[in-house]
Structure prediction request, 359 residues.
Amino acid sequence: MKEKRGIILTGAIIGLISVLLVHLGNPKNMGFCIACFIRDIAGGIGLHSAPIVQYVRPEVIGLVLGAFLVSLVNKEFKAKGGSSPFTRFILGMVVMIGALIFLGCPLRMVLRIAGGDLNAIVGLVGFVVGIYIGILFLNKGFTLKRNYTLSSFEGYLFPLVNLLLFILLIAGFSMLHFSEEGPGSMHAPIWVSLIAGLVVGALAQRTRMCTVGGIRDMIMFKDSYLITGFLAIFLVALIGNIALGYFKLGFAEQPVAHSDGLWNFLGMVIAGWGSVLLGGCPLRQLILAGEGNTDSAVTVMGCLVGAAIAHNFGLASSTAGASPNGKIAAFICLAVVLIISVANSEAFGKEQNLEKAKN
Prediction:
C-alpha cells in the first residue's frame, strides 16, 4: 500500500483542484480537460474561429512547466525523440477528434462521471473497449520504434514555447482571441489556473499519472498502481461536487455534454485506442513533453491541429449532439487508427513476409 500512497494522494489533489477550479470560474465538470483546453488554446491563437471556445488556458501551460521544473530538479529531464514522429502527429489529431466528438478527454470523462453525467459512463465503456483493442495490437508486437537522445536544447523548446505563450497571455497580446460567451469565456483567475497546473504537472510527473495507463496496466498485468489514482480523482471530485451542489445525476442537460450514446461511445473508443498506441493519454503526453520528450511534444502539436480541424470542418460535437461531419469523421478516424495499428505490428509484418516466401 505504501507505494500507492503517492498516486492516491496525487489523484485526490487533482480531484480537489478540479472542483475548486470550477468553483472559481471554469465550466462545470471541466476543472481539467486536456482536449477542451487545447481546443481553447487553438482558438486563442487563431487556429479556428469558433467564438465560444477561444482562450489560452494557463492550466495546460502549468502542466508542462510543472513537469519540466520537477524533472530538472530530480535530474529526470532527458531530451529524446525520433520515434515515428509523423505517425504520432496523426494519432494526436485522431485522439483529439475522438475526444471532441465525445466532448472531453479521459480526465474530463472521469470528472463528468463524478458530476453525475451518465453520458460519460457510456464514454467510459467506449474508452475501455478502445484500450482493449489497442492492447490486442500491443500483443501483436505493435511498436512505433525506438527514440534517440537529442541535445538538451531540443527538449527545452516545448516548455519555452509554453512560457512565451503565458507571457503573451498576461501581457494581453492583442493578437490573441478571447471568447465573450460560452465555455471559453468561463475560467478561473489566470494565476490560480497556472498554479493549479504547476501543482498537477509536478505531481503527475512524479507518479506517472495516466488515465489510459491505469486501465491498460490493469488488463495486461493486473497492476492496480495507476488505476488507484484514477479512482481517487473520481471519489474526491464526487465528494466535492456533492458538497458544492454541482452534482446532477442523469443523461439530460449535462454541462458541455450531449446524450448521443453511440457517438459518446465511439468518440472514446477512438481516444482510448489511439492513446494506447501513443503510450499515454493526453495528460501524460503533456507531462512527457515537459520532461523533454519531443515525440510527445509532436503528439501535442497533433492534438492542437486536430482541435483546429475539428472546429474548422464542423467535426466537434455540441450540446445538441454529434454533427453529421463528426459522424463521418469518427469512422475515418477508426480506419486511420486501424491502419496504423496493423502497419506497425510485427506479427502482421511476419505474416506478410511468410506469404512472400511461400510465393
The radius of gyration is 19 Å.
